[in-house]
């Protein structure tokens, strides 16, 4: 029937009716909170470009993680910020690496909190790239895929031995998921899951993160290994390969500008799907809200709900603690 018999506004009249017919819901169970763990500091260092977040000493991050667990947030994602960098990222896979110490402390204090660790070399290399750099055939430096895999596997195994529940490779080297799965299994760590940054795009929205992690490349960019933002079908190929290699969870990053990719992935693959609501997406809303141009709560919840509506089950977001507060105030 058409108007006037059909009036869709009937189901929008009250908050109760709107709740009853709502198609997409956002829950605290859907969010993962990122943490930056920095070596060589004794107090948290606020991150200017990532308002409300800080670089944490390994000891202090344990107390903060306990508070996060008390809020009901199910998982944290740890990024390391070392005080020593070299060409082969040796501080990334040392047994006493800053992330390893943080994982051990968190799992001792709150074993029920799921700890995910980012596996990538960019924050640990003196050149800032996500793999081993060598001279290419034309004399220009290139990131060598195959020689990077060994180091990435060593990092994943070190994190898993420290107690990480999930390792999350974000480097975008070909074959790294299969290599990590083999490395974990050979180390007797068969129960450790892999959440692959499967469709990670070479995005302009990573700026505040690179400030927080100290991971900006010292030359060139990452377009030779991160995905072209224009390619959607290629994203599905990347995800398919990661699933075949043993990924337990796959991810699309960034989230907001790639809702179509999230939708395609959700409709194509049966494995759990994550999306990263990245630092630039967060910072844009924060900046606009500070100027009174948008309501931060409404804008953030609209963005996160859109990511869920597109098909992501897990959302990595800097608003995770705010989500708990906003949902409880409904």
Summarize the structure.
Helix content is 39%, strand content 18%. It is an alpha/beta fold and 330 residues long.
Q: How does the major sheet shape up?
A: 8 strands, parallel, barrel
Secondary structure tally, helices: 11
Proportion of helical residues: 25-40%
How many DSSP-defined strands?
12
The string of secondary-structure elements, in order, is HEEEHEHEEEHEHEHHEHEHHEH
The portion of residues forming beta strands comes to: 15-25%
**Uncertain parts:** none
The CATH class label is Alpha Beta
> CATH architecture, please?
Alpha-Beta Barrel
Count of the separate structural domains: 1
General form = globular
State Rg.
20 Å
Describe, in plain words, how this protein is organized in 3D.
The chain has 330 residues and is α/β, with parallel strands linked by helices. The chain has one domain: Alpha-Beta Barrel (TIM Barrel), CATH 3.20.20.70. Helices cover 39% and strands 18% of the residues. The strands form two sheets. The protein has an eight-stranded parallel barrel, surrounded by nine helices. A two-stranded antiparallel ribbon has the order 6-7. Helix 4 (145-162) packs across helix 5 (176-186), helix 7 (233-245) crosses helix 8 and helix 8 packs parallel to helix 10 (296-310). The mean pLDDT is 96.
């Amino acid at each position: 029937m058409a108007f006037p018999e059909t009036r869709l506004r009937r189901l929008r009249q009250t908050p109760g009716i709107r709740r009853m017919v709502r198609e997409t819901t956002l829950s605290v169970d859907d969010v993962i909170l990122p943490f930056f763990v920095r070596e060589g500091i004794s107090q948290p260092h606020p991150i200017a470009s990532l308002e409300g977040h800080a670089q944490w000493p390994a000891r202090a991050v344990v107390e903060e993680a306990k508070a996060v667990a008390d809020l009901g947030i199910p998982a944290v994602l740890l990024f390391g910020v070392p005080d020593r960098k070299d060409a082969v990222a040796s501080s990334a896979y040392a047994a006493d690496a800053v992330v390893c110490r943080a994982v051990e402390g968190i799992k001792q204090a709150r074993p029920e909190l799921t700890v995910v660790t980012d596996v990538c070399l960019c924050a640990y290399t003196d050149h800032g790239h996500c793999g081993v750099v060598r001279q290419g055939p034309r004399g220009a430096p290139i990131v060598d895929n195959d020689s990077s895999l060994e180091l990435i596997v060593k990092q994943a195994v070190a994190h898993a031995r420290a107690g990480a529940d999930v390792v999350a490779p974000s480097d975008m080297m070909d074959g790294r998921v299969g290599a990590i799965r083999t490395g974990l299994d050979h180390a007797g760590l068969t129960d450790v899951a892999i959440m692959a940054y499967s469709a990670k795009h070479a995005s302009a929205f990573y700026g505040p993160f690179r400030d927080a992690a100290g991971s900006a490349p010292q030359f060139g960019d990452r377009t030779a290994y991160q995905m072209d933002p224009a390619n959607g079908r290629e994203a599905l190929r990347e995800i398919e390969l990661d699933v075949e290699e043993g990924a337990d969870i796959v991810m699309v990053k960034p989230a907001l500008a790639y809702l179509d990719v999230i939708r395609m992935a959700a409709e194509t693959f049966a494995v759990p799907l994550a999306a990263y609501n990245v630092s630039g997406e967060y910072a844009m809303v924060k900046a606009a809200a500070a100027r009174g141009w948008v309501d931060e709560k409404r804008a953030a919840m609209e963005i996160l709900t859109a990511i869920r509506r597109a098909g992501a089950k897990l959302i990595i977001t800097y608003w995770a603690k705010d989500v708990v507060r906003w949902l409880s105030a409904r």
